Each structure stands twice: as C-alpha cells, then as structure tokens.
C-alpha cells in the first residue's frame, strides 16, 4: 500500500471565528538533556495550551510535554500510540494506521486532539478505525492536558486535550536566515520506512517561508504467537505536505499555510459475517426472517476469507494564525486561529468503495488577554465551528448532519501573595445538530451548556505546590450519539442513537428524554519541582450524571445491538511520577497510573478502561552518549463490562541508546529496542482487544540532523 499523489486544490472559507482560553503559561520541560551539571530546578518552557500562570507552581492543570526527538525515538506512526505511556494516557489502537489517545479512561469525543489549538476536523471522533490526521514526525512538540481546565477547549473535553504544535506558520525568523532538519526512521517489526524534512527560510526583512514533508510506509506487523507471520490488515502508509508563509514584526505575526495529507492503511479484525444483522425492537436478528434458533437468532451466516478492507484518506486544510502583543489599550495580547478542512476517506473492500466518509468544516477563534488589573490577569475568548459530516455507502450508519457550535469563555488568575494563587474559568456553549435530507426525518437538536472550573494553588514552601481543583462541566451529545442507526463493523455493532422516533431503533421501551451530561470533577495534586528529588502525584474523582454510553441490548456471537443511553457513572484515578537525580549523568524515575470506572447504580463497569500500570525508567548520559531503560507492568484487566473478555497482564521492556552529533544539540542518532521480552499484548482500551494483538519485539533506528 502506498499513498498516491493527487491534484492539490485550494479552498478557503473565511469566517469570523474564535477561540479558546490559552494564554501564555510556563511548565517544566520533561526532556532530560544530559547536562553534566546539577540544577536546582528543571528548565522551563512555554505551554501554549494552558491558560495562565508564569510560574510552574501556579499551573492548576496536570500536563505533560513530549519533544520532537522523543516522538521520533518512540517509533510510532500514530499520535495515540506515540503518547501511550504518559501518566494517565493510553491508546485505543486499531492496527497500524489508526489510534486515538485515551486519557483517564476516556477517548473521543471526550478527548480532543488539536493542531496548535485548533480542531483537526477529521472523522476520528466517529470511529476508532478512522485515523487522527496529525503526524508525530512533523510535530515540534506535543502538550497533553488532563483535568478540569480542559473544559476551555469545549464543554465536551472532560477527558483531556492533546495539542500538537508545529511550525508550518512560522512565528519567528529562523536564526541565520534558514533553519532545516531531516529525520529518518525504520523498524524491524513492520519493515517501516519513514522520513520527514522541514525548511524555514527568511524572505526579506519580515517574511518567512516554511515547507515540510513526511512519508511513512510500513508492512503488516509481526506479533508473537500469531498463527501467520504477520497480522493481516495492519499495514499503513501516509504522506503529509505543508507550505506556509508568515509576516513577522517585532510585536507579532500573521500567516497562512496549506496542508495535504494522504493515508492508505488496513483495517484488521473487520468481520463481514454480520452485515445482514438488524434489530427487531430490542432484539437482534441475523440472517433471513425464516431462519433462527430457539434464542431468536439465525445461525446461518457465511464465513469468508476476504482480504481485510483498507482506507484511502485525503485531507486538505488551510490554516490562518496570528498573534500580536499590546494590540490596543487594555489588551496585552490578541491571538486568533482560523481553519478550513476538506476531509474524506473511502473504505475499500475487494477493490471497490464500500463507504465514503466526508467532513467539511471551518473553525476559528479569537482570544484577548487583558492587562493586569491589580492582582488579576485573564483571557476572554470566542470560538465558533461549522461542519458538515456525511457517510455514504454500506456503512452509512449516520445521516448527513450540519453541526454548529459557538463557545464564549473566560479564565482569570488571581495572585493573593507569594504562597497562594487562585484560578477560575467559565464557558458557555451553543450547539446545533441539523440532519440534512434525512429520509427518516429525524429532528434537529439545539441546546446550550455551561461549565465552570476553579483551583487553589498553595506553595507552602519553596519548590512545593499543593493544588485543589474542581469543575462542573456540561456536555451535549455528539451527532453520532443522537442519530446513529445502522451497522458499524469497526466496533462490531448495530448502533441506535439517543433520539426517540416513531420508527425507533432499539425498541420504544429504551427511548428516554435526552438530558444534559453533567460531570463534577475534583482533583488534588502535590508537586515538587526543585532539588534532586522531583515528583508529581495526583488523585481525581469524576462523578457524571446522565453519562452517554453504548448500552448493549442484545448480542449474537461477537456482534451487539447497542442503544446510546444515559446513566450515572464515576471515574476514580491516581497518577504519580517521581524522579531522583543521583548525579548530573544518572537519574531514576518511578511512575504509575490507575483508573476505575463504573456505573453508580451498581449495574456494572464501563468498557475499555485501561488496567493499572506501574514501572521504572533509568536515564544515563556520558559525554555525547545517552541511554534509557524503561520497564513497566500492566495488570490484568478483569473489571470489565458484561460483553468484554479479561485482558491478561504483561510486562514491557524498552531500551534506547542515542548519540548526539556535534555541539549544537539538534542532531542525533539512536537505536531502540521495543517489547524486548516479545510479550503478546492485548490492548484492553482497543475495540480489537481480544481480536488483534499489538506488535511484538522490534528494533528501530533513526537519526535527526538539523541545519
């Protein structure tokens, strides 16, 4: 499978659009640079996705940062798999071409993936087999936010936010007039060949040009104990290109970029035996109406050995970004983002297009940071998006839907004294889903949601901070949760949406009035940011009223009839990480996370919740050489939903060796061994948890050279 070049078409829809709370903030860098000297504190870097706070100890939301070299060395082609292993972060992998981040047990649409603060507007929030259209190879760094403050990116971001930062619209002139890099990577488990190149050049006194391209081609990967040499349907290929231009002044910048992405990847685990299944009220019928056994199910269906289907994906996107300092009286900064996305992918079976998914949309935001008012600093903003999603073909389980969302938000930070800081935020959102030319004449949905968050940070002694944060977040249903009706083979389900109708799907007894999903999140964390020992430990409790989930009404073999339903649920979790710097060249880290999710009425557990994970990491350096040994244990997951199977425990061991080239620090080579014990891993957070194993032992190598 190789991506095919297609003609590039330009389309820009400019709408006044708007924003999110993300003023400048500062956080600890998570990357160890092998410096031979001991510092009292780790270096600080700007975290663009956080709202406010110039001191790491004043940040009220848990966060992680992954830099570009770490993303390269992780050897993962998808953003979910690349971030798997951060505190509280897992992946709902779907073969080699698609994976979404799972944060504190929740994934899309409750976890949002952003491109420099803007929604990516693909179809990954519809299904786990749909790729998230960001490339780790082209990312400058990735910011992961967890907890209450993420509501500022939308009332639905109760799980967390992943913000991928790039340089396709330069915000500063390159040093020396030109900046470029080349990265190359390969691995043994899937015969991967991947490369990325980027170039930023100064054109005149105020104009900067950027060009970047990446390509990746991987075969079906190998897994231990698998009956075939390779796992069919796990091959993946992609090609990404972007060109941008930016006008840069001493007070800020404004720029535009065009991006083109093409993916071609397999879909393992698809089972077409159940294509004829359909509901009779709340019962599932598979086969013709004259068959069926005593259980009401027809067992006469055919098994085939067709090759796995593939996805051919194309995304065309235009971004406009700008930021200016001191734009007018009373404002210290203004930032705006606008984007237009033309996305579509075809699911191909036996060489023919079976289903086509299309998402066409625009989004924008503007945010204004006001000048300090006494001890108060803050940001006010407006965000708007307008998208049209449609599915055509065999798996068109949703109608064409126009969705419009507008959000108004405010976040304020108050510094009482050197020891006490407070933060408060609010967001009000207007949401409308409107079916277009729907043969079932399903009604439009129009509602509002309001969310609040607050935090108190106590620096009770230098280098230590205790934070208590709380939020009350309202979430409105996704279009899929409202209008789904039809076969969805990626999840092996026949889906029925929340919306009641005369021809109800799932039986009239399962219809109920739609209520606003409301979560109350409380989190307590303790951080130490200075000295030889640094750590962060936090516990959270998320109590959710009217949680929207896929309730199983009937099941035949591995195929289920599901009805989106509401029930009260709770998530309780713990995340911890501690590092001791023994010398300037050697450190050890202990880390772990756990989350428990269940319905509060005692009716069972939520599905696809990751098991407890605990491990250690040893980092060492000597001159230009660096090494990292990582070992962790993932426990057996037996707190399962009634339709799930238990996922066995496993141990993961990874080793990375690196060598820095030159004194600039922007060039290096590395060698990495992943899953060195060749463990057979079943990823419980994946819809393929008991069907498709994860990759086995792999040796990868690569380099990055900066110019």
Can you offer a commentary on this structure?
The protein is globular and about 70 Å long. 2% of the residues lie in helices and 53% in strands. With 707 residues, it is mainly β. It has one domain: TonB-dependent receptor, beta-barrel domain (Maltoporin, Chain A, Beta Barrel). It contains three helices and 35 strands. The protein has a 22-stranded antiparallel barrel. The protein has a five-stranded mixed sheet with strand order 3-8-9-6-7. A two-stranded antiparallel sheet has the order 1-2. The two termini are 32 Å apart.
The number of domains is 1
The CATH topology label is Maltoporin, Chain A
Average pLDDT, to the nearest integer?
88
The number of helical elements comes to: 3
Strand content: over 45%
Work out the number of β strands. 35
Oligomer: single chain
Structural class: mainly beta
Head-to-tail CA distance between termini:
32 Å
Cα gyration radius (Å): 25 Å
CATH architecture term = Beta Barrel
Helix content: under 10%
What is this structure, in a nutshell?
By secondary structure, this protein is mainly beta.
Throw out a few tags for this protein.
single chain; about 700 residues; mainly beta; 22-stranded antiparallel β-barrel; 3 helices; about 55% strand; disordered N terminus
Secondary-structure blueprint:
Elements: E1 26-28, E2 44-46, E3 63-67, H1 68-74, H2 79-83, E4 89-91, E5 101-103, E6 111-115, E7 118-119, E8 141-146, E9 160-165, E10 178-187, E11 192-203, E12 207-218, E13 236-249, E14 252-266, E15 278-280, E16 283-285, E17 310-325, E18 331-349, E19 352-373, E20 376-393, E21 400-415, E22 420-436, E23 445-461, E24 464-475, H3 479-483, E25 485-488, E26 493-496, E27 517-528, E28 533-556, E29 559-583, E30 586-599, E31 613-622, E32 625-634, E33 650-660, E34 668-674, E35 698-706
Parallel strand pairs: 6-9, 26-29
Antiparallel strand pairs: 1-2, 3-8, 4-5, 6-7, 8-9, 10-11, 10-35, 11-12, 12-13, 13-14, 14-17, 15-16, 17-18, 18-19, 19-20, 20-21, 21-22, 22-23, 23-24, 24-27, 25-26, 27-28, 28-29, 29-30, 30-31, 31-32, 32-33, 33-34, 34-35
């Amino acid at each position: 499978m190789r991506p095919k070049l297609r003609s590039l078409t330009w389309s820009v829809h400019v709408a006044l659009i708007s924003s999110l709370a993300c003023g400048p903030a500062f956080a600890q860098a998570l990357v160890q640079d092998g410096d031979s000297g001991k510092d009292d504190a780790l270096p600080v870097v700007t975290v663009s996705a956080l709202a406010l706070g110039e001191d790491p100890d004043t940040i009220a939301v848990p966060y992680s940062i992954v830099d570009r070299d770490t993303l390269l060395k992780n050897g993962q082609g998808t953003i979910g798999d690349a971030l798997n292993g951060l505190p509280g972060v897992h992946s709902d992998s779907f073969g080699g071409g698609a994976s979404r981040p799972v944060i504190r047990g929740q994934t899309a649409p409750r976890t949002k993936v952003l491109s420099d603060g803007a929604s990516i507007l693909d179809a990954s929030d519809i299904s786990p087999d749909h790729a998230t259209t960001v490339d780790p190879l082209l990312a400058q760094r990735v910011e992961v936010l967890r907890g209450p403050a993420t509501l500022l990116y939308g009332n639905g971001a109760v799980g967390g936010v992943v913000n991928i930062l790039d340089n396709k619209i330069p915000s500063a002139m390159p040093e020396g007039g030109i900046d470029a890099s080349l990265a190359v990577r390969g691995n043994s488990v899937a015969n991967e060949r991947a490369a990325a190149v980027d170039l930023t050049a100064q054109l005149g006194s105020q104009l900067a040009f950027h060009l970047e391209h990446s390509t990746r081609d991987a075969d079906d990967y190998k897994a231990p104990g698998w009956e075939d040499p390779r796992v069919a349907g796990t091959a993946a290929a992609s090609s990404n290109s972007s060109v941008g231009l930016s006008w840069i002044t001493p007070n800020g910048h404004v720029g535009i970029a065009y991006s083109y992405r093409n993916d071609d990847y397999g879909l393992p685990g698809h089972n077409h035996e159940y294509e004829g299944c359909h509901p009779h009220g709340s019962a599932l019928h598979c086969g013709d109406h004259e068959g069926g056994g005593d259980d009401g199910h027809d067992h006469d269906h055919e098994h085939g050995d067709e090759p796995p289907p593939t996805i051919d994906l194309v995304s065309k996107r235009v971004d406009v970004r700008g930021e200016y300092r001191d734009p007018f009286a009373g404002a210290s900064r203004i930032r705006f983002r606008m984007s237009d996305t033309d996305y579509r992918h075809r699911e191909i079976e036996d060489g023919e297009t079976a289903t086509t998914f299309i998402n066409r949309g625009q989004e924008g935001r503007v945010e204004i940071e006001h000048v300090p008012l006494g001890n108060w600093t803050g940001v006010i903003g407006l965000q708007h998006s307008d998208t049209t999603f449609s599915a055509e073909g065999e798996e068109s389980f949703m109608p064409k839907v126009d969705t419009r969302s507008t959000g108004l938000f405010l976040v304020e930070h108050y510094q009482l004294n050197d020891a006490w800081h407070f933060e408060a935020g609010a967001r009000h959102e207007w949401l409308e889903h409107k079916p277009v030319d729907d043969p079932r004449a399903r009604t439009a949905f129009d509602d509002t949601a309001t969310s609040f968050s607050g935090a108190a940070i106590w620096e009770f002694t230098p280098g230590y901070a205790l934070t208590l944060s709380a939020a009350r977040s309202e979430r409105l249903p996704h279009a899929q949760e409202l209008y789904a009706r039809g076969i969805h083979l990626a999840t092996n389900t026949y889906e029925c949406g929340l919306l009641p109708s005369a021809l109800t799907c799932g039986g009239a007894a399962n219809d109920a009035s739609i209520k606003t999903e409301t979560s109350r999140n409380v989190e307590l964390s303790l951080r130490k940011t200075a000295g030889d020992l640094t750590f962060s430990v936090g516990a959270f409790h998320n109590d959710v009223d009217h949680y929207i989930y896929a309730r199983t009404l009937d099941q035949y073999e591995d195929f289920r009839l599901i009805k989106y339903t509401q029930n009260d649920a709770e998530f309780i979790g713990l995340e911890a990480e501690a590092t001791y710097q023994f010398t300037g060249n050697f450190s050890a880290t202990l880390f772990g996370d756990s989350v428990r999710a269940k319905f509060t009425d005692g009716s069972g557990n939520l599905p696809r919740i990751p098991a407890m994970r605990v491990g250690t990491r040893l980092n060492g350096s000597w001159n230009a050489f660096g090494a990292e040994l990582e070992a962790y244990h993932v426990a057996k997951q037996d707190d399962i939903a009634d339709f799930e199977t238990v996922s066995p425990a496993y141990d993961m061991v990874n080793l990375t060796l690196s060598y820095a080239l030159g004194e600039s620090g922007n060039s290096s080579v590395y060698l990495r061994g992943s899953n060195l014990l060749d463990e057979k891993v079943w990823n419980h957070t994946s819809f393929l948890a008991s069907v498709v194993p994860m990759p086995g032992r792999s040796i990868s190598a690569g380099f990055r050279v900066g110019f």
